[in-house]
Design brief:
Layout lengths: L2 E6 L5 E7 L9 H12 L7 H4 L5 E4 L1 E2 L2 E2 L4 E6 L33 H8 L5 H7 L4 H16 L4 E9 L2 E2 L7 H10 L7 H16 L6 E8 L15 H10 L4 E6 L17 E4 L2 E4 L7 E2 L2 E2 L4 E7 L10 E3 L6 E3 L10 H24 L4 H16 L2
Length: about 375
């Protein structure tokens, strides 16, 4: 199986990740990782932090001459803003209390208060530094490697934004290639030109109110073989693993697979995908299940959506309570992104790619990419005889 850990704080010297379980012989490109890191920082409605940082990956272990060696992959991105925080975020003990930039006023919607209560911190910076979405930089880096892994088997991950505020995209009739190309050209990563204008207007409206706005991103995984995941235990079901991955993204409060909550509004005959057979094997004319039945892929493309709440760092104030004085206050006004839905879609691509890569490694195993490909081709040949 694949697994990874991230480490580091938002204003620390760097953020890092260790990715374990990749087969030997996999081509890994730092350039490809940097493309996704840049995509994460883009999108209409982002704040000033994206102007401070220019994320560039450093691969410090696990790759030699452009290919994995079978050991853990070590990844690192420097925080350019660290130079402004060297005393506040110093690793070594200091001989005087650091009160500058101490946080005692928890912001509603953030991890501040819950984390302070859990860990007993009297400076909530100890919570917000790690809870920050800055951490997703490394998840995107790991996901970029996972994309390179599954692309070796012809599997592709694409993402696009389908809603911001009240503006909805209509991509019916567009091919996946058209969705991808149009979304990448859009400032809000939306494949519908008219909806793009509406989304920008929604972001501008929120900004004029000194507020924030959320939306929905959609991730598709193409050319997935049937049989990834399993029905035999709850924690092996692929839809459950995808749900955990999407909901782990900061500010995501909902997930749908296929029709999602839409299945509650129609009859069963309008939900389940009929099964057909031809010389190429089993197939469906519809994909309302989003490519997953019984916790397993069934050969159609995976379709997953994540619902992102308006982010909680606001330019306007809402009420909270100081943990020291217990007095009420208007929560701190800080620089803020107005909308991070386009960036969240890139993060969604990353975490979904990782789950699929993990399921591929689980299903086909192998210490080298060549061994894994032999297993994969054998399985695909077996399906033709089913």
């Amino acid at each position: 199986m694949l697994r990874y850990l991230t480490a580091g704080e938002s204003h620390g010297p760097a953020i890092t990740a260790i990715l374990e379980g990749l087969p030997a012989g996999l081509p890994v490109s730092a350039e490809e990782i940097n493309i996704d890191l840049k995509r994460r920082q883009g999108g209409y409605g982002r704040g000033r932090r994206m102007q401070i940082e220019t994320d560039t990956i450093e691969i410090t272990g696990g790759v030699r001459n452009g290919r994995t060696m079978g050991g853990p992959l070590s990844l690192r991105v420097e925080n350019q803003d660290w130079k402004n925080w060297t005393d506040v975020m110093a690793v070594e003990p200091v001989d005087h209390p650091i009160t500058r930039r101490r946080v005692t006023k928890p912001r509603p919607g953030h991890a501040d208060l819950a984390g302070g209560l859990k860990y007993g911190h009297r400076d909530l910076r100890n919570v917000l530094e790690r809870a920050s979405a800055r951490e997703t930089t490394m998840r995107v880096a790991v996901g970029a490697v996972a994309k390179q892994f599954i692309e070796a088997f012809g599997i592709r991950v694409i993402g696009h934004v389908v809603r911001i505020g009240q503006a909805d995209a209509d991509v019916s009739g567009l091919s996946n290639e058209e969705i991808w190309n149009r979304a990448e050209e859009s400032p809000v990563r939306c494949a519908d030109e008219k909806a793009t204008e509406g989304m920008i207007a929604e972001i501008d409206r929120a900004k004029s109110l000194k507020d924030t706005i959320g939306g929905i991103f959609e991730i598709k995984v193409l050319n997935v073989p049937p049989g990834l995941g399993s029905h035999v235990q709850w924690d092996r079901k692929l839809d459950g693993r995808l749900a955990q991955a999407i909901l782990s993204i900061q500010a995501v409060k909902g997930i749908e697979i296929g029709m999602g909550f839409g299945v509650t509004q129609v009859l069963g005959s309008e939900v389940h995908d009929e099964i057909f057979y031809n010389e190429n094997g089993f197939y469906r004319k519809t994909n309302r299940a989003g490519g997953i039945e019984g916790g397993m892929t069934e050969g159609e493309e995976i379709v997953v959506r994540g619902a992102l709440k308006p982010i909680a760092t606001l330019m306007r104030t809402i009420m909270s309570v100081d943990i020291d004085t217990k007095e009420p206050f208007d929560s701190a006004k800080e620089r803020s992104d107005v909308c991070t839905v386009p960036a969240a879609g890139v993060i969604g691509e990353a975490v979904v790619a990782f789950v699929v890569a993990d399921a591929m490694q689980e299903k086909f195993g192998g210490d080298s990419l060549e061994e894994m490909k032999r297993n994969y081709l054998g399985y695909m040949g077996q399906l033709k005889d089913y």
